[in-house]
Specification:
Blueprint (H helix, E strand, L loop, with lengths): L1 E4 L6 H4 L1 E4 L9 E11 L1 H8 L16 E9 L11 E4 L14 E5 L3 E3 L6 H4 L2 H13 L8 E4 L5 H12 L4 E6 L2 H10 L3 E4 L5 H8 L5 E6 L2 H11 E9 L11 H6 L3 E4 L7 H16 L7 E6 L3 H10 L5 E5 L2
Parallel strand pairs: 8-9, 8-11, 9-10, 11-12, 12-13, 14-15
Antiparallel strand pairs: 1-2, 3-4, 3-6, 3-15, 4-5, 5-7
């Protein structure tokens, strides 16, 4: 089968290859999916670039944890009724050598989730990391109903979903940080009540004024290393910071402002959700999809052979939204 893969970390055009590899077979408890679209995420790019480790856990990696397609084979113990089912995938490449950047992938049955009929396969490839991250960030620890919420990077893949989900849960106010008129339009289209440009010198005051000085009950943060000081200043007493990303491995923070406000700091990575949180997120996301409450920002669709270009676009940060590769 045709697949993209790499055997060492490095620059996208230097290490990514597209060629023939053996077709997988569904083992016991698994399904095999004929991939239609493969979703590309910043974590995929960081792993390929060596940001987390220079030593690969497997001799060869087929990247990407997100994708969509149709089940065409089931292993022992899996109902034949799943054959022909349209599905979206999560954690395909987490702790495994074979992700979705291939014509087929075999993976545990639970990691192939039925895709509602009205949701396109291209949109399905955007759900695994971005939508599940957004859902958990919005709904964890009691959720955001009746609360003021700041979504950092509201035009990003996660932020775009988080705005919609916070509005769907009846947050009192949803504010998004943006950095350009195009990103402002995307955030407003997703449902943000207001936006502010985080690059402005008076960004913190602008954000605070949008809450009439009350501060935010929850901040959903894409880059805790860059924004921790501002986040602590913008949170109201007893508020919480939910961080799912950082541009640096080590984060310094002003301690006394945090304890004087009794702030809650929460961190998570969507790959590692416990079974209860995972089940809650999957069922909740399915309900939102079935009810048509989510729009999907697919900013780029490229063929599998252009995987290096897709990785470069994400590294450059020039494409707000999700990038997917059309595989079949």
């Amino acid at each position: 089968m045709r697949a993209a893969f790499y055997s060492q970390v490095g620059a996208a055009r230097e290490v990514l290859q597209v060629g023939e590899v053996p077709q997988p077979q569904a083992g016991a408890g698994e399904v095999r999916v004929r991939i239609a679209y493969s979703g590309v995420n910043p974590s995929d790019v960081k792993t390929r670039g060596g940001a987390r480790t220079k030593t690969l856990p497997f001799p060869r990696l087929i990247p990407h944890s997100d994708g969509s397609g149709v089940i065409d084979q089931v292993g022992a113990g899996i109902s034949q009724e799943r054959l022909g089912e349209r599905v979206w995938l999560w954690n395909a490449a987490w702790g495994r050598p074979d992700g979705t950047a291939a014509e087929w992938v075999a993976l545990p049955d639970a990691q192939a989730v039925k895709l509602p009929a009205q949701v396109t396969l291209a949109a399905g490839a955007c759900l695994g990391i971005p939508a599940l991250t957004a859902f958990h960030a919005v709904r964890m620890a009691g959720g955001v109903r009746g609360k003021r919420v700041l979504v950092a990077g509201g035009a990003g893949a996660v932020g775009h979903y988080a705005i919609q989900m916070a509005k769907a849960e009846a947050a009192t106010q949803v504010i998004a940080s943006i950095s350009s008129p195009i990103k402002q339009a995307l955030a407003v289209e997703a449902g943000a009540d207001a936006t502010f440009n985080y690059r402005d010198t008076d960004a913190i005051e602008n954000a605070r004024s949008l809450t009439q000085g009350a501060g935010f009950d929850r901040i959903i943060e894409v880059d805790v290393a860059a924004n921790i000081a501002g986040d602590l200043a913008l949170l109201r007493p007893e508020g919480d910071l939910v961080a799912y990303g950082s541009s640096a491995a080590n984060v310094s923070m002003p301690f006394f402002p945090a304890i004087l406000k009794n702030l809650q700091l929460r961190f998570f990575i969507v790959y590692n959700l416990n079974s209860a949180d995972r089940a809650f997120a999957l069922s909740g996301l399915t309900r939102l999809l079935e009810s048509g409450q989510l729009t999907h920002n697919i900013a780029g669709e490229l063929p599998l052979e252009s995987i290096a270009e897709a990785h470069e676009r994400i590294e450059q940060g020039t494409t707000p939204g999700n990038i997917v590769l059309k595989v079949s």
